[in-house]
Specification:
Helix 2 (about 35-45) packs parallel to helix 3 (about 60-75), helix 6 crosses helix 7 and helix 6 (about 160-170) crosses helix 8. Helix content is about 45%, strand content about 20%. By secondary structure, the protein is an alpha/beta fold. The protein has 8 helices and 11 strands.
Length: about 230
Amino acid sequence: MARTIAYVEDDDTTRERYAGELRREGFAVTAYASVSEAIAGLRQQLPDLALLDVAHADDRDAGYQVCAELRRLSSEVPIIFLTRRTGEIDRISGLRLGADDYISKDASVEYLVIRIEALIKRMEAVRNAGPAPRGSQRSGLELDEIYSTVFWKGEQVDLPLTHFWIVRELSDHPGEVRSHRELMKAANIVVEPNTIAAHVKSIRKAFARCDAEFGCIVTERGRGYRWVLSR
């Protein structure tokens, strides 16, 4: 069965181009021209992945609205922003809302397809995981390996899949510095170091909603990040 993609883009030419290219790659694409259409469709059926533009003609932050609603519906569906809004603030905003990747429309379709396939395969691997240990615990942190869920001091931390893998990589090596490259490899993404920084900021913010004193992720300037057992 073809993997499904929900694609939200208000420009007719752009929407038809990318939807056509993705269908030729074997994906089943449902294309939406507006936020209201997209949200209504997502509420009826979740896709295997969502591809969102940030700005629509009548709404500069339309894609962020769709992203926030989709994350409310599911913490699992991978989300990619495909946009010309590639400034750092835009990128950080998208990642903080729970997006897994942020790609410029200048990128090739081949690159986009690789990123889509990587995120979908990773999610399928999690869903199809065999009877592995339910989870692991370490000083207030619990990772559910089957459902890719994170708990901090008994409370669930709302994190998308990319953030789960980053937290797991850091907490699996307490006290050790994990470089941007190591975190990219663990999360199966290829991004700029500042995008990893944005992911880490989002992770910290999610933990802070559970514990205002959370400080287990320490930045080592120029080297990466490390997980400390107490801070």
